[in-house]
TrEMBL record:
Domain of life of the organism encoding this protein: Bacteria
Domain called Serine hydrolase: residue spans: 40-86
Protein name, as recorded: Serine hydrolase domain-containing protein
InterPro entries linked to this entry: AB_hydrolase_fold (IPR029058), FSH-like_dom (IPR005645)
Organism: Streptomyces yaanensis
């Protein structure tokens, strides 16, 4: 993973000693990263989507995510939390897990 902000570095420090997590990025992946325009593929999504956004995200810009959400034609739901990319997983963990579990139970029936 590439971390370019203080919050990302703090997140990385939390997982530094977890043996099952590998912090790796291939050069090929990095090359393709800058070519990707995922919003262009939004209309092709056919599976239900739950999009969890952080309103101050600097890693995955929230405006781009909102635009992609608008273009998805499959059944969809969006929820936004205050905070940054990794921060919402710390500050709103229980709520996100509960909401996601509920969404999965409703969607997979």
């Amino acid at each position: 993973m590439m971390f370019t902000d203080p919050e990302g570095l703090e997140f990385l420090k939390r997982f530094h000693d977890v043996r099952s997590w590998r912090n790796e990025l291939t050069l090929s992946s990095l090359d393709h990263l800058f070519e990707m325009e995922v919003t262009a593929y939004a209309e092709r999504i056919t599976a239900p989507v739950l999009m969890v956004l952080a309103d101050s995200d600097t890693v995955a810009p929230v405006e781009e995510a909102r635009e992609m959400f608008k273009r998805i034609t499959a059944p969809k739901e969006v929820v936004e939390y205050p905070g940054q990319h990794y921060g919402i997983l710390v500050d709103h963990f229980e709520e996100i897990v509960t909401r996601t579990t509920s969404w999965l139970a409703k969607t997979l029936v």
